[in-house]
Records
---
Amino acid sequence: MSQIIRAMTHDGSARVLIIDSKDIVKRAMEIHKPLPTAAAALGRTLTAASLMGSLLGEETDLLTLRFKGDGPGGTILATSDFKGNVRGFIQNPNCDLPLKENGKLDVGACVGNGYLYVIRDAGGIEPYVGVSEIVSGEIAEDIAYYYATSEQIPTVCILGVLIDTDYTCKSAGGLLLQLLPFADESVIDNIEANVKKTPSISSLLTEKSLEEVLGVYLDGIEYDIFDKIDCGYQCTCSRQKTDEALISLGEKELDDLINSDKPTVLTCQFCDKVYEYTKEELKALRSQL
C-alpha cells in the first residue's frame, strides 16, 4: 500500500501532505503498460490526485484531475476518493520522447498545451469544475498554478516518478504544501529555501522513509503529524455499472447489439477488466426498460 502523511506547522502557517506513491504507480503501470514518458506523466497525475483527494471532506466525495493537452500523450485522467485511493489512465500509453538536456523524462512535451480540469463531486446536482491553463505540462507546476489562480491558495506542489532501466517504477511520491491565512513570513522563507536545496522527491524516497523526507522539506520548522492514511490504486468498476451503462443506451441500441453477429464486450478504461455479454443477458437487460 501507498501512504499519505498529513501534517501542520506548529504556528498554523501551512498544512503539508506527503505521499509515497510507488505502489500506486507500479499497479497503474502493470495495468496500462505505458512507456517511460507516459508512465511518468500518468504517475505524477495519479500522485497529485491522491494528495488532493485526501483533502475532501466526506466519504462519498470524489475528485477528478483531467489534463487535456495537445501533446502526444493525449488526455490524462485520474480520480480519487477522500482517502486518496486513485485510478486513472493516459490516452496514449505508448508515448515516449527523447530525454531533456538535463537527462530527465520530457513530461511537459508529452502533455503539451491545453487545460487542466479539477472536478469535485460532493453528491450535489452539479459537481464543481475548476479550470486553468496548463502552464508547463510538468503536472506539479500546473497543480500549483491551478490552486493559485482558481482557489487563491499559495501552494507548493512537488511530484516525482523514477522509472528504472527495466521500465519498472523505482520510486514515486509527491508533496503538497499550502500556506494558510496570515502565514508567518519567516516560515515561508524557510520553506522556499528548503525546496530549492532539496533533491528530487523520487530520489529521496529511494533512501529515506516518508517521515524522513517530510523532515527534509520542513527542516528548521516545527510541525505536527496529525494522521497517516493508507491508500492504493483501486478501480470501482463492476458488472452492475456495465449493466447500467448498457441499459442507458436505450431500446434501439440494445436491439442492435442483440442482433449483431459481433460479441458485446465492455472493457474498463481504468483497470482493463473485460465484461462480456451473451445475447440472453442483453435480452434480460432490455426487458428492464
Note: The first helix runs from residue 22 to 32.
---
Amino acid sequence: MEYLETPQGRRLAHVRTPGRGPGIVFLGGFRSDMTGTKALHLQAWAEASGRAFLRFDYSGHGASDGAFEDGTIGRWLEDARAAIAATDGPQVLVGSSMGGWIALLVARDWPEKVAGLVTIAAAPDFTEDIWAAMSREERAALAARGFVQRPTDYADTPYVITERLIAEARDHLILPAPLHLPMPARFLQGTADTDVPLERALRLLGHATGPDLRLCIVKDADHRFSTPDCLALIAAMVAEVIARA
C-alpha cells in the first residue's frame, strides 16, 4: 500500500498493480474501503489478465487520512480525480454504489480520461433520497446540530449524515443535468437491492445519452452484488467494455 497526495493536500491510501492499458480503477461506496470483495476480486482478475489496476480509499475512508464526517461528494470526487490522474492513459472506471455516482461525474466531466465505465448498483443522488426519507424531527436535529445518525445494515454503528453532505451534494447531482457518456458504459443492478431500487437504474439508463449504453439486471441480486456469479459478471462487463473501447 502506498499514499498519494491530492492537490487539496489530502493523503489517500492506494494499491496499484502494473499492467497494460487501458487500466482499471475501482471506486468504492459510501463508508466502504478498498479491501472489499469486489475490489479484491477485480484486482485478481486484472492481474491474471495482465492489466493495470488501481484501488484507493477516499479521504475519511479505510486507510486514508481524514475524518469521515468531514467528507462530501465534492471532496470525494476530488479524491477520485487525483487517484485517476495518477494513472497512465485512459482508464475503465468501475464504481460501486456511491462510487458509481462519482464515476459518472468523472466520465461526464473528464471523458478523455475514461475509456469505459461499469457501475454496480450505482447510487447517483442518494443524498436526496436520505433527505426525502428524514422525518421532521431528524431535519430539525440536522439543522440544530449539523448531523444526524441513521442505522444501517452494513455496520454495527449508525452512519453519521451531516448537513454539509446533503447540501454540498446538490452541486453534483446527476439526474437533473444532462449526462452524455461517449464511452461504452454498462450499468449492473440487482432486483433484490433494497438500497438502490431498480427504478433508479432504469431512470439512469433513460436519462443518459451515448452510443453504447446497456443496463444488465440480475434477478435476486442485492446491493452487495458480491456472489460468485455477480463477481464473474462484473469482470465480464469490464472485459466487454475494454473490447469495445
Note: Helices lie at 37-49, 73-85, 98-109, 126-133, 136-145, 163-169, 198-207, 228-244.
